[in-house]
Design a protein that fits this description.
Helix content: 25-40%
Distance between the termini: 39 Å
Order of helices and strands: EHEHEHEHEEEHEHEHEHEEEHHHHH
Radius of gyration: 21 Å
Strand content: 15-25%
Number of strands: 13
Shape: globular
Number of domains: 2
Number of helices: 13
CATH architecture of the largest domain: 3-Layer(aba) Sandwich
CATH superfamily of the largest domain: Periplasmic binding protein-like II
Length: 386
Amino acid sequence: MTSRITTAAAVIFAGATAMSPAFAQDVKLPNTMAFTAYDTGTSGFNIAVGVGKMMKDKYGSDVRVLPAGNDVARLAPLRANRAVLAWMGTGSYFAQEGVFEFGVKEWGPQAIQMTLSTVDCNGLSVGVAKDSGVKEWKDFRGKRLGFVVGSPALNQNALAIIAYAGLTQKDVKIVEFASYSAMWKGVINNGADGAFGSTVTGPAKELESSPRGIIWPELPADDKAAWERVRKVGAFFNPHNVTCGAAIEASKPLKLATYPYPIATAYATQSADQIYSLTKAMIANYDSYKDAAPGSSGLDVKKQTKQWVIPYHAGAVKALKEAGQWTDADEAFNNNLFKRQSVLAAAWAEYGKSNPPSDNAEYLKGWMAARKAALAKANMPNGFDD
């Protein structure tokens, strides 16, 4: 299914915008564009649709948002130049690192880079069916945890959350589904007890209104040892007081977790001018889409997570600098991430020349060893346990 935001005009109607003439000249968008995002009804999809509508209204660009059930499917159109942005989660990080489903011959480390991302009132955690009897994460032992085939981000993130209580994959029953939406439907239909997602994702609202109901077991930040376990599995997580989402009241914040999501992701090979225009359009027209969907307000340029685990694209950096939201420290941090991507790319090329095994599992095993050695030689952290 494709959401199509129909074009009302082929050019910008200057009187309908608050842009200066210079700004209008700076932002040059194609007549048609495609984004990829999570499944229809998810917060990532809804935010992408809201941004796409803004680009239609302000610039006359006809934007299609293509839903995809896993990270590989979201990145494939971007890599093939059939999309200009992929609204990703931590799959962008796993793609950069060339791990999990990206540690196969067809992929390897990807030069993934950021434009804008969202951190808002919502959280990112595992929603649990209320009738499962789970109150705290220690109660989830032996319960059924939803996984999505081909989505390392969702699966690894779920494992990071249950690690708060010292639980691992061996302590739960993994139930695999074909897509994100199917996983949450599985919880609603009593095929699983928990699923990872945003607290404002549409499927979580559906679970809340179903006979099973929903709860979000908390992850208090004051338990330092528990948070060390979380970050050992998911280094990108941070504690977050959550005030919006399914079964969450603003007056009673929950102590959950978050990371930037969704992340409007690009490839390093994309034109700096193109990414600059896309980023600047989102910055300048923030008021036009900030209320379009839950979580959209987190795209505020002043809320950006600028020193994270993947770098910003040069075009996005230019737009951030113009907005006064880029420092020398940000530049230094970003340059180190560019170096990391170069180290990973070189290691991947060398591994491909080493006559690696054809078996997928052995191929991945050999790559992870080569990757570890290359990062150690460059004095860079591995980021993943053996």
